[in-house]
Structures are given as C-alpha cells and as structure tokens.
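Customer escalation, tier 2.

The customer says the design service returned an amino acid string that "doesn't look like it belongs to this structure." They asked us to rerun it and document both sides in this ticket. The original structure tokens are below, unchanged.
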C-alpha cells in the first residue's frame, strides 16, 4: 500500500470498493478479485480494497467493531495494542490527571485513539508516511480529529516538554521482514532513548515485550504485565509519578463485561493495595472490561511445602510480574518446588489470578504406572499441563494409548526437585 492507493481508497469509489470487498472477505481471494473486477472496480483498487477488507476482518479480534472502518497494514496490525488493553491504559492515564499526551511512534494509532476516547489530547508521531496517513484517516473516521494531531516524523526529535505525559511503544519487529526483535537495543526508537524518557520525565509509559528481562527495568519504575483471557499480551513500564507499585499484574477478559463488578467513580480506578487484589473497573461505559490487579514488590518468595489437595496454575501475568508470593499469601498456598510456579492449598478459593485443579493422585513420573492408573480410572481424554518438565506432551499423549471415556488433567512438574505427575480434575 502506498499513499496514492490510500488516497484512492478514501474517495467515494474507494469506499464503494471497500464495502463490496467487506462482503467478499474471508472467501476465496481469486473469486473475490474477479467479482470486484466484474463490478467495474479497477484492478489496483480492487486489490487494495480486498487487502484492507481481509486485514479489517483479522483486526476485529483486536479492535472489535471499530476495525471495520480502519485503515491497516499487516505489520501495523501485528504490533498494535489490543483495544481492551489500550482502553485500560488510557483510563489509568486519565485518572492520573493526564490531559495531553505525546505518542512517540504511534503506529496505526490504537493507543492514540484509546487515549483520545478517554478525553486526552494526543500528539501522535509516526516515522512511516503510509502508517502515519492511515492513522490520520483512522482518527478522522473515529471522529477524534479535534483531539489527535498526527505528524509524520522522527519521534526522537520531538520536544516533549509541553505534554503532561509521554507514551512510547517502540517497534519490536524489523521493517521489511517483519521479524521479531528480542534485543531491546534494536527497538525503534532505541531502548536508550526510551529509558532516558522514563528516567527524565515526570510521567512516561513505555510498552515493552512481555519477555522483558527484569534486570532492564529502570529503578523506581513500575513494571506491569497484562494478560487477556489467560494469554500474556504485553508489559508496560510506568515511570515518574505514574509509578505506583514496583510490580503489577493486570488480568483482563477479552470480552467486555460492563455490568460485572462494582463500577469505580467516573474517571478513576481504585488503587490496588500491595500484596492484595483489587477489582479495578474502568469507567462504567459499555465496552469496558473488568480488570483484576495484583501488585507487590516482585521480590518476595512464596513458602515451599507439600503438594496439597488443590493446585493453582497462576496466570502468566502473575508469574512474569514475579507476584506468585503475593498470590500464595492470598490463597494460603505454597509451592512444592522453589523453582516451579504451581501453588498448592487445602481450599479451593475462586480467584481470577489462577486456574484451580483438584489433585486426585500424586506419582513419581513413570510412564508404566501412569498408563495403568489412567486405565484403572477409565481416562480417555487428557489435557496436559507442564512446568519444569522436559517431556513432550503430545508424545506422552501418544505413549499413554488412552482408551476410556473419562476426562482428566495431567500435570507434569517437579516436587522438591523430583519429576512428578499429578492427576487432577478441574474445580468448577
Ligand atoms: C509498535 S508500533 C506502535 C503501535 C501502536 N502503539 C498501536 O497500538 O497501534 C511502533 C511504531 O513506531 C514507529 N517508529 C519506529 N521508530 C520511530 C521513530 N524514530 N520515530 C517515529 N516513529 C517510529 C514504527 O514505524 C511503528 O509504526
């Protein structure tokens, strides 16, 4: 996609081609192209419209219904923040008193749009001309042009002194190849630039890869890990006055649940307490998700003890934020191996931070013994969870030669250093 093709898509003919392409998206691409061509759409415009329609279809999982009117690139969509996460972040910024924000490297504008929807005035800078033009179009489509200014340029040269806060989501994929970058020094804008913002400015938020090494987190900065429906999706550094706690795990459902939980006052989220949980609701508007927030220093260690009746498999945001000890304290639980993040307790307590299973059998790992136990229990279907085991679950499933009619959960782990299998059943 180039600027001329984007401009053509924004004409009345382009809009008609996009509408027609949307009706054909998801089917056979050659048939769709032929249908557009036979309806009189020129080949170039038809191809551009079909590409957009396909990207919009894929983007619906990230942005919901608003994806249908957005202009997208493949690379931009892959790197864009999920709507539910961007909205949550924007609400927190707004609640912290942020009224103006510089978005340095705004991509397709998912974060800028969310901030504007939260009432924040945004100055969005993007180095890639086509991406910047698409963001400007997305802002206009959303009716937010009065709140968002999009500039094409180098974000590292922007004077950020006049803004309440700065947001940066550096590119973590190589331009051209789209390959993932794991070394923060290869991010764009570069890591040094980003961490300098965090250290120097009164309020900075930086989105980072969830695999970020804790050793790279600047001092006095809050590091937050976010999961959506149990999938770890991103981490963020909150610097300066925005830092509330050293470590935070935010657990979000993908599906907005505006009527669940007790709504917080408009424009604010209740602060979670260290080491405990808080149900932090965003503004009580349709489309907002209930977030569960666990915080703490991230340096505490959970007690180690025996396997008990219930096993808790903590959410990946809790594990990555190093908040397993805080969760253990809340559940009255312990680890069974100091290096493995499964928790065990005598009571099954409902928690948004972990999945709970009832342990029915504990056995040292032995394929023969496991096979005979599963046969005795008539287990024919197993889900296999593992932490601290090198076994290949699919190979194990084949080796078990299951034949019964009962389901079970198998946990491959270590207990006090010894390879152990736990036979479990889900707790409703
Ligand atoms: C990860 S994406 C941002 C995604 C965005 N937060 C969203 O959710 O839609 C990073 C963007 O930064 C842009 N970028 C990289 N280096 C830049 C620089 N020095 N100045 C401006 N933009 C830059 C890239 O082109 C890319 O579009």
């Amino acid at each position: 996609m180039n600027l001329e093709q984007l401009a053509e898509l924004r004409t009345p003919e382009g809009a008609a081609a996009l509408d027609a392409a949307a009706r054909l998206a998801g089917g056979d691409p050659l048939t769709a192209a032929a249908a557009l061509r036979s309806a009189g759409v020129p080949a170039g415009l038809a191809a551009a419209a079909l590409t957009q329609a396909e990207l919009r279809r894929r983007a619906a999982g990230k942005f919901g219904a608003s994806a249908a009117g957005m202009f997208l690139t493949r690379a931009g969509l892959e790197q864009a923040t999920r709507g539910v996460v961007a909205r949550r972040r924007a609400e927190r910024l707004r609640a912290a008193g942020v009224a103006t924000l510089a978005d340095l490297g705004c991509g397709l504008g998912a974060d800028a749009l969310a901030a504007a929807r939260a009432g924040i005035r945004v100055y969005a800078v993007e180095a890639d001309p086509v991406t910047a033009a698409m963001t400007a179009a997305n802002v206009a489509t959303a009716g937010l042009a009065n709140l968002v200014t999009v500039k094409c340029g180098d974000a590292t040269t922007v004077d950020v002194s006049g803004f309440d806060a700065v947001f940066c989501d550096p590119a973590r994929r190589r331009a051209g190849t789209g390959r993932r970058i794991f070394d923060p020094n290869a991010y764009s804008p570069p890591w040094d630039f980003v961490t300098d913002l965090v250290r120097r400015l009164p309020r900075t938020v930086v989105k980072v890869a969830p695999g970020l090494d804790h050793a790279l987190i600047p001092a006095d900065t809050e590091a937050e890990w976010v999961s959506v429906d149990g999938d770890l999706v991103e981490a963020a550094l909150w610097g300066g006055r925005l830092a509330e706690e050293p470590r935070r795990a935010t657990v979000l459902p993908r599906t907005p649940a505006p009527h669940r939980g007790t709504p917080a006052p408009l424009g604010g989220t209740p602060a979670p307490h260290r080491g405990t949980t808080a149900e932090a609701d965003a503004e009580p508007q349709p489309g907002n998700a209930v977030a569960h927030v666990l915080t703490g220093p991230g340096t505490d260690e959970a007690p180690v003890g025996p396997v008990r009746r219930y096993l808790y498999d903590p959410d990946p945001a809790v594990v990555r934020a190093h908040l397993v000890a805080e969760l253990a304290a809340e559940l009255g639980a312990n680890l069974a191996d100091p290096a493995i993040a499964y928790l065990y307790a005598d009571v099954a307590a409902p928690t948004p931070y972990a999945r709970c299973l009832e342990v029915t059998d504990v056995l040292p790992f032995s394929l023969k013994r496991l096979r005979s136990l599963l046969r005795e229990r008539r287990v024919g279907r197993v889900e296999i969870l593992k932490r601290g085991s090198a076994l290949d679950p699919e190979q194990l499933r084949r080796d078990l030669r299951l034949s019964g009619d009962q389901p079970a959960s198998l946990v491959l782990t270590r207990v006090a250093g010894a390879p152990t299998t736990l036979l479990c059943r889900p707790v409703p």
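Tier 2 assessment: The sequence is consistent with the input. The longest strand covers residues 354-364. Residues 256-287 have pLDDT under 50 and may be disordered. Sent an explanation to the customer and offered a walkthrough call.
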